[in-house]
Amino acid sequence: MEISEASYQIIAELLAARTGQQLTEGRRWRIGTSLSSIFRERGITNVDQLVCLLTMPGETQLVQDVVEALLNNETYFFRDKPTFDQLPAEIFPILAERRSAKRRLQIWCAGCSTGQEAHSLAIQFAEQAAQWEGWSIDILGTDISQKAISVARSGHYSQFEVQRGLSVSQMLNYFDETASGWQMHSSTRSIVRFQQHNILDPAPCRQPFDLILCRNVLLYFDGPTRTQAFDRLHQALAPDGFLMLGAGETVVGQTQMFESAARRPSIYEPVSAMRSVQQALAG
Description:
- Keywords: Methyltransferase, S-adenosyl-L-methionine, Transferase.
- The chain contains 13 helices and ten strands.
- By secondary structure, it is α/β, with parallel strands linked by helices.
- It has two domains: 5-70, no CATH class; 81-154 and 186-282, Rossmann fold (3-Layer(aba) Sandwich).
- The strands form two sheets. Strands 6-2-1-7-8-10-9 form a seven-stranded mixed sheet. A three-stranded antiparallel sheet has the order 3-5-4.
- 32% of the residues are buried.
């Protein structure tokens, strides 16, 4: 499908304004494929016609549908498993020691898509149930996509989705098979809640988080927007908490607010207040 430069720019600017994500030239191809269902539903034959409709008053739902369709909701259970396995093996024990007095953990999965990441955390805690007896565990999953959040809240996944990342024992222990897929046990997902939220907005919770997962979200931001996102993450994270990024993301050259957590891949922690002052003076 041919896309005029003017239409491409309008759609790219719409996505950036609503989500902060950049529809780069390399992702231009997604316009035709991602919006194909909207074309069919609306009887639209080309992108120029779609752009004309987007600029008309009263097309709020169409604007929302276009933005939702362009978002990349790719996710699966225990994505980048070696990185994910660091949590129960190394990060959870540290947090358990640091929060032993209040026996409460608050975790934020930012850009959680359809919820597999947050539910993966719930499974990890369920697999260590004895160690966390008497603790309050609160996992918050957020995403800018209302459709994705609806799926996440349901805890219901297709056969294909549960096979991506889950072992057979995990499927059988934490899900029930239904006629249309697999339903996660309510007892397992009881520690998880979801809400729609833009990572560029103020934190979704007043209390600082002990652990934040923001994986494969920053890849779609330009430099200034990525800086803004890091600012938000830093504001939301406890001074002694941890931040996990995606395998292809880093803080190096992106922000001075975080540093590598003892050389653990993809795990970072806030730079101390004194270190921040030293870096500012050196800069």
